[in-house]
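Journal club prep, notes for RB
We'll compare a predicted complex against what the paper describes. Inputs for the 2-phosphoglycolic acid case:
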Amino acid sequence: MRKQIAAANWKMNLTLQQSTELTDALLNEDLKDYQLVIFGVPFPYLQTIKKKIAGKRNYFIAAQNCHFKKSGAYTGEVSAEILKSVQVDYVIIGHSERREYFNEDHQMLTEKVNICLQNNLKPIFCCGEPLSIREAQTQNEHVEKQLKESLFHLTTEQFKDFVIAYEPVWAIGTGKTATSQQAQEMHAYIRKVIVEKYGDDVAESISILYGGSVKATNAKEIFGEKDVDGGLVGGASLIADEFSTIIKGLK
Ligand code: PGA
């Protein structure tokens, strides 16, 4: 079974106290070996939440971003090396909000992926099309290009067990979820593109998460699709009961 993942993306929300309460409420989920919960938390909380999940083998933390340079005079930025030094497990790379508001292009994302891997951090690489592309029905080409430009230089070894999040931009924070069929179609397409480049074994090892208005009421159905290996969840990951139900919806 591929890893099935419920990843929370808290974005720029929650105080420290709220974040510890939320984590406490979610620490005792009954998880199978292949099911993971990842908390994508603001930088200042990484160490606190890491301590909270200590000894819980299916729980991990993620940073929501990192800089693409190794180190240096980049005031306010955080490097992969810094994240590694506080035992971060995963890093969300290429979220559409970062692509849009912080002008992150594919070259920068390629460098971010590389520097994460050099530091043994696991990228959660986000891709997904805006509404105009969906309306023009060219979403497959769009997502394929995003993957090829930022990931397909990786070796088979580097790409094995990789985590990709498909997040249609029109579904993020809008309450408009892709149907489970739309999610499955894209996830199957992504896996096909990976098969062509890296072969069946690698494609079968990769977890492809769906993101975009995942909630307690739709998670189980979406996650039930053959090529959907869990979700990257924003708004609904801020509410303990909601996220708990989402975790329980994992295959
Ligand atoms: P949402 O965000 O669940 O609030 O739509 C998902 C994401 O941006 O990762």
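Talking point for the session: Residues 9, 167, 172-173, 211-214, 232-236 surround 2-phosphoglycolic acid (CB under 6 Å).
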